[in-house]
Amino acid sequence: MHPLAQLRLHRALHPDRQVDPREVAQWDHRASQALAFLEENLRQVAEGDWLATAGHPSIADVALYPYTRLARMGGVDLDGSPHVLRWLARIERLPNYTTLFPGRPELNESTLEV
Fold first, then answer.
1. Which of 106, 44, 36, 41 has the alpha carbon at shortest distance from 78?
2. N or C: which end of the chain has fewer CB within 10 A?
3. Distance in angstroms (rounded) separating the CA atoms of residues 88 and 64
4. What is the mean pLDDT of residues 63-79?
């Protein structure tokens, strides 16, 4: 999910920082690949299962969630990834789930960070 993070840093958090456009194009390409890989893996898991385990989320789900949830900040479109969107919603329905920016839900896909 490194390319998702790089795009978010470049486009949302540090838009004035000079970056070679070829590097940004590579991040876009790699972000699309990463999202497609995640989508395919989620498509293959049984209903109710998670990325690496059945019945409960694993460290894989926890680790990939923030990069994926904030991908739109980097210009990555999640709308074409229905399994990813369902997976994000499942995580957000877990008991004791807390938003990435507690008390500031408007920042969860914003270009601002607190």
1. 36
2. C
3. 10
4. 93
Instruction: Of 97, 96, 101, give the one whose Cα is nearest residue 111.
Output: 101
DSSP code at position 71: G
The CB density around residue 14, as the number of other CB atoms within 10 Å, is 11
Residue 89 exposed, middle or buried by CB count within 10 Å (0-12, 13-18, 19+): exposed
Identify the pLDDT of residue 12. 84
Global pTM value: 0.86
Q: Alpha-carbon distance 79 to 83, whole Å?
A: 10
Angle between helices 21-44 and 59-69 (to 10 degrees): 130
Q: Where are the alpha helices (DSSP H) in the chain?
A: 2-8, 21-44, 59-69, 82-92
One-letter identity of residue 24: V
